[in-house]
Design brief:
By secondary structure, the chain is mostly beta strands. About 5% of the residues lie in helices and about 55% in strands. The chain has a 22-stranded antiparallel barrel. The longest helix has 17 residues. The N terminus is likely disordered.
């Protein structure tokens, strides 16, 4: 369903002038309190709370897990216009961009599958995210590392990522940002918020972005429209309604990526700009959302909260995939090292329509007992996802690739396909019902217990590419955590939860893998530094799982005949390691978001090879005391060397039998920024990304991959009223 952009345009035209006209209206103290959003920020890069991850009014320092929050200040400083760019800065997160418009995420050695918006969401069925998700409508991005047994129950023990939407502000605020960048990048953001009356506020965000790319033939046209109203219906009732739509139209996109090795084991090492796309390729994604949030104050210290979100996603693609024939004995691709010949290509037309409905209602509050104050919450949630997709192929049109002299000379010029072959697809529905409860109990003045549990019922019906997806699983997931306050500034903690995750992955015989089961433990310390302006978290985690799906090559789908990624179960997979996270102002004028991750992934060498187990994230800005209008900063992401064993050299070559290993050396991506505040309204920001012009592969998650962007620039002019 295409979004009704007209309604938001009318909303903008009506609401904004009214807000400006009421710019001098001063709501009373009670209304101001109701319009205050959660996630209180203490000082620029430091946030005090991430309460949508716990349903309890607890500071991050008092939660027994490692949490990072990336907010508007840092997003603006480093021009983090999409979610991939934001998550690339987060402690322990690894962004696996396997192709131009499809991304996987990993943390602590496992796929990240739990994505939420304002605390609502289901684990991603496919394990990946499509399109370019814009950040303009979000106030912040919260990342809880480790299993989230209390608030999700299912998914992986890697992390939960929660996007928190912008809400109306207490006073009139209007801002605009214009950006120009490398490869003809152009972008305009407008964000307007105003009180319409003493009890009603409105906010509108509009974004238009158009850019080309360092990749041959790739370009993106993106539009975002968002509107939200918040109204105090009574002295104790607050209602928020909103809608958004994002359209991402990509041209020249890759489906799959570059073959990374020749048949004799030598790396291909193409130019950074090399792309496998055809000149007619496209991947269009439209994401439309409607949401409502109701908060009702009950007795003193108690409240009832209800959320509902409806999502509609439409995808329309015309894709070109390249692959090479494989040696029947070793399974190795047979790309000739001398001529570059051996690539085969075919076209596909893919469409997807899905609808998501999420509903959640809970009560929380405080009570006193045994001389202490305690918090409790309980609730229920329901989620439903229904999707249909259709794939059509062209196996008979001349493909061109077997005659290709070398990948570097590929111009994307291949015949437009006739999408008439191999029709197949999916018609699947998933429902998840959950009941949850929990509480933070003060056992003594210094020791508290966060405990609870979640019962999840997961049902899946339908077929996907000829495979029966029927599933009916349920489990109770317990959660427990102890927090001990050594003093007012330092807490130590321990948390434990179990893992239950139904899997959609299939083995080489296309049978569904059993659910993931296991345990997740975390021990750590959190310290408030610099008079509360910074928070340091040091965490040790220990995760043990069985039946984890790991890639196991490709096999022909028995129904469609098309080769697809298949998986196998990793028996006894474990991840143990350390994370250090530091956020806030560690010296006067020096804002930081720093992270160090070191872990050891055992039990399956295939996973351990291509997953970086050592990561460093440095994000810092410094505002000069003697020249406060000037701010400079750097963002650095370093990861250790990774590799992937893909088989052995075939018998036709002199080095037959030797292992073929794809390697990515350790590398650091260094970004720089500088901003100058011209006056109260105008700020100019200059960003240089990949300053050292590092050449690197975006991911070894697949055997295929492509290169990251070379050195590039962005100039922003920000205006605010």
């Amino acid at each position: 369903m295409k979004y009704n952009a007209i309604s938001l345009a009318l909303f903008t035209a009506i609401a904004l002038p009214a807000g400006v006209a009421n710019a001098n209206a001063v709501p009373d103290d009670e209304d101001i309190e109701k319009l205050t959003v959660s996630g209180e920020r203490l000082n620029n890069y430091l946030y005090k709370q991430a309460d949508s991850l716990s349903r309890l009014d607890l500071d991050i320092k008092d939660l027994p897990q490692s949490i990072s929050v990336i907010g508007e200040e840092m997003i603006d400083d480093f021009a983090l216009n999409n979610i991939n760019a934001v998550l690339d800065t987060v402690t322990g997160l690894n962004v696996e961009e396997v192709e131009t418009d499809r991304t996987y995420f990993t943390a602590r050695g496992f796929d990240v599958t739990n994505f939420q918006v304002d605390g609502l969401g289901l684990p991603v069925l496919s394990g990946n995210v499509h399109g370019d998700i814009d950040t303009a409508i979000y106030e912040r991005v919260e990342v809880l590392r480790g299993a989230n047994g209390l608030m999700t129950g299912t998914g992986s023990p890697s992390a939960t990522i929660n996007y928190v939407r912008k809400k109306p502000t207490e006073n009139t605020q209007i801002s605009a940002r214009a950006q120009l960048g490398s490869w003809n990048a152009k972008r305009l953001d407008i964000d307007a918020s105003a009180p319409l009356s003493d009890s009603v506020g409105a906010r509108v965000v509009v974004v238009k972005e158009d850019k080309e790319s360092y990749l041959d033939r790739y370009e993106l046209d993106k539009t975002v429209v968002y509107g939200v109203l918040s109204a105090a219906l009574t002295d104790t009732t607050q209602l928020t309604l909103g809608a958004s739509q994002q359209t991402s139209d990509a041209k020249g996109n890759m489906w799959g990526a570059l073959t990374l090795y020749y048949a004799d084991g030598t790396p291909t090492n193409f130019d950074t700009s090399t792309s496998t796309s055809a000149d007619w390729s496209q991947w269009d994604v439209t994401d439309t959302r409607y949401f409502a949030f109701l908060e009702q104050e009950l007795a003193e210290g108690w409240s009832l909260k209800a959320d509902y979100t409806h999502i509609e996603t439409d995808e329309d693609t015309q894709l070109f995939y390249t692959y090479v024939s494989r040696d029947p004995e070793t399974g190795v691709t047979l790309l000739d090292p001398d001529t570059g010949l051996g690539l085969i290509g075919y076209g596909s037309e893919y469409t997807l329509d899905d609808e998501h409905d999420y509903a959640d209602v809970y009560v929380n509050g405080n009570f006193d007992a045994f001389g202490q104050s305690h918090q409790v919450m309980m609730g229920a949630s329901y989620a439903k996802v229904a999707y249909t997709d259709v794939s059509l192929y062209d196996f008979h049109t001349g493909n061109g690739f077997p005659l290709l002299p070398a990948m570097e000379e590929w111009t994307g010029n291949t015949p437009y396909p006739e999408f008439t072959d191999g029709a197949t697809g999916s018609d699947v529905e998933e429902e998840q019902t959950a009941f949850y409860f929990g509480g933070n109990f003060a056992l003594t003045d210094s020791l508290s217990l966060l405990a609870g549990g979640r019962f999840n019922q997961v049902e899946v019906s339908g077929t996907s590419y000829g495979i029966d997806e029927t599933l009916d699983e349920n489990a109770f997931v317990p959660y427990g955590g102890l927090v001990y306050a050594i003093n007012d500034d330092i807490n130590t903690y321990f948390s434990y939860t179990e893992v239950f995750t139904p899997q959609t992955e299939r083995d080489a015989n296309f049978n569904r893998l059993d659910p993931i089961t296991g345990e997740s433990k975390e021990l750590g310390v959190k310290a408030s530094l610099m008079d509360g302006n910074a928070l340091l978290t040091v965490a040790y985690f220990d995760i043990d799982q069985v039946n984890v799906a790991v890639a196991d090559g490709f096999a022909a789908n028995p129904v469609s005949g098309v080769e697809e990624q298949v998986y196998r179960e990793a028996d006894g997979l474990s991840s143990k390691g350390w994370e250090v996270d530091l956020a806030g102002e560690i010296l006067p004028g020096l804002q930081t978001s720093l992270g160090l991750t070191i872990f050891d992934l055992d039990g399956d060498q295939l996973v351990a090879d291509y997953t970086p187990e050592k990561l460093v994230n440095i994000n810092a800005t410094y505002q000069f005391e003697t020249l406060p209008a000037l701010k400079v900063g750097t963002s650095v992401r370093w990861q250790e060397a990774t590799s992937r064993n893909v088989g052995q050299v075939p018998a036709a070559y002199a080095n037959a039998g030797q292992d073929i290993v794809i390697e990515q050396d350790a590398y650091a991506l260094v970004n720089m920024m500088a901003s100058y505040t011209v006056n109260d309204s105008i700020t100019i920001i200059a960003n240089v990304n990949n300053v050292t012009d590092e050449k690197y592969l975006k991911s070894l998650y697949w055997e295929q991959g492509y290169y990251g962007a070379p050195r590039n620039y962005m100039l922003s002019v920000n205006w605010q009223y």
